[in-house]
Amino acid sequence: MNNTNNILQEFLNLLKEQLTLMSIPVESIIFSLLISFVEGLVIYIVYKKTYQGVIYVKSFNVSLVVLTMITSMIISAISSNLVLSFGMVGALSIIRFRTAIKDPLDTVFMFWAISTGLVNGGGFYTLGILGTLIISIVLILMMRIHKFSTPYLLIVSYRDIESEDRINEFMKKHFKKYRVRSKIFNERNEITYEIRLTDVKVINELKKIEGIENVTLISYSGDYVETI
Prior knowledge:
Layout: H1 2-21, H2 26-50, H3 58-80, H4 82-93, H5 104-121, H6 125-145, E1 150-158, H7 161-174, E2 179-184, E3 189-197, H8 202-207, E4 212-221, E5 224-227
Antiparallel strand pairs: 1-3, 1-4, 2-3, 4-5
């Protein structure tokens, strides 16, 4: 019991020494982390509302909130201690991130989260708040004005030539631009189109055409494939 009390007392003494050495008050650190959390939540909401991809990844969105807070914490530490700043830069330089970013907008949101943390860690809270609000408005307006289309591969299996004619008529009617990527004539006839969609509901109409056996819509981007 005495050993536990001694360890606890040593820990408290060490904590007091560290707080004494810090040039930034504890209240400022807590406020910086708190405001970074709130602004990170704004980024979280904007990302969810403006997401245009096929599969929404919640873990990535949550990481944006945490990334904002972590960046703020690191900048607060660097600004309070010159020696620590050199060690921190050296430690961060050996980190390698293996997760590939597929959507350019995901990169924008990551940079936004990091920048917000940098600003808050440096104590420029007004800049962080105004910047977060203005960027949020711009992103929401841009997404509403221009709804981005997503590239797809549309694979249609059909029975006979008459069915293919009906499929071609459907494509001409519903798509301004499309490209035939491949055709397979075997026991199972199959044709693959490259198309762009803003709404996959139009594919439901294609399924109703007589003679169609199967319809597959594949979203592809970069080096990965997602089957819908």
